[in-house]
Amino acid sequence: MVGIKTSCRLSGINRSTYYRHRDPSPKAPREVSTAAPPNRLSPAECHHIITVLNSARFRDKAPRQVWAALLDEGVYLCSVSTMYRLLRAQGQTRERRAQARHPAKIKPQLMAQVPNQVWSWDITKLRGPGPGRFFDLYVMIDIYSRYVVHWEVHSSESGEIARQFMQNCIRANSGIAAEVIHSDRGTAMTSQSVADLLSMLGITKSHSRPKVSNDNPYSEAHFNTLKYCPVFPGRFGSIQDSRQFCRRFFEYYNHEHYHSGIGLHTPFAVHIGTAHAIQDKRAQTIETFRATNPWRFTRRPTLPGLPQAAWINEPSELGAAERQAPDQRKAS
After folding, report:
1. 51 vs 60, which has greater pLDDT?
2. Which of 81, 134, 197, 295 has the fewest CB atoms within 10 Å, i.e. the most exposed one?
3. What's the CATH code of the domain at 251?
4. Strands 180-183 and 204-207
5. By residue range, what is the domain housing residue 84?
6. Quick one: which of 107, 97, 53 has its CA closest to 77?
7. Residue 331 pLDDT > 60
8. What is the pLDDT of residues 36-47, one digit of tens each?
């Protein structure tokens, strides 16, 4: 006599399949008894408990306080959990204190079509000579041209230093201020001294949402370029060393670095408005070479285009074609 387990193993049939075919009609589920428990409170008892809890004596007390006070008087109505359950059914359980409601921060949406429309600034840490020693690098960048308007290195971060830094930015830009200055929500950026200065100058201030680094993309990307530079040191021996390095780096970045986001032009050329003339000269150089050596080309070469606009959080309904001119244009 071979058992079911052995037979199923030898025949290759799953045991659950065998049992399902042997008894195809499932048994009706057992009905669950819905009878009320014998210790259930009657409607009259529930009403009495609610009346006691809402009485002038106990309406300002928590159920635990009511339960203890009545118990000391030799009265037992129900458990504390039952009191809470009955109050919950009446919609009478909630936080007693007024809760602070913080509305969601508005998503910043900024667009720049020419230089000096929108500036973005931030502060990053530079490692000092020893553990726990840092220097603070303040950087202001134009989001359209990617030009670093001004930078400073300080030993600390404060609203007063930030105020003076902004004044120096305008002075370094030949007295021209941006229409909007954007930053994250650091203590220096949201300080009253900075807010008073921007208000006095008639500059609109803009801030990122809390803990959303994507709301300040140009400053974050610029710091990434800085700190991933091959010659960026792990530590600076002094604040003078950090200033000397930043002076060389930003001079190179503004005047020699060909930025992919602005059609492979230097930020300085875009900032002062000579990029279009340089673009035409590049196109002419390519066309001259193409006319001399036509066999080198299977199609007309193109140039990376200059951006039509720079966005911080571009609205989703706008397409890439509205944000930026075609990445490639005819060389002719």
Report:
1. 51
2. 295
3. 3.30.420.10
4. parallel
5. 43-89
6. 53
7. no
8. 788 889 999 999
Closest to 165 measured CA to CA, from 153, 180, 148, 179? 153
Residue 214 lies in a domain: yes
Are 238 and 294 within one domain? no
Of the candidates 171, 173, 169, the one whose C-alpha atom is nearest the C-alpha of residue 121 is 169
Residue for token pair 């140039």: 303
DSSP-H helix ranges across 256-293: 267-272, 275-292
38 within some domain: no
What DSSP designation does 262 have? Answer: G
pLDDT of residue 119: 97
Q: Domain check: are 166 and 287 in the same one? A: no
Report CA-CA distances (Å) from 129 to 226, 248, 297.
19, 20, 55
Are 287 and 332 within 8 A, CB to CB?
A: yes
214 and 304 assigned to the same domain: no
Together in a domain, 250 and 220: yes
Q: What is the pLDDT of residue 16?
A: 86
Pair 297, 263 in one domain: no
Q: Give the model confidence (pLDDT) of 256-300 as tens digits.
A: 999 999 999 999 999 999 999 999 999 999 999 999 998 988 888
149 in the same domain as 47 = no
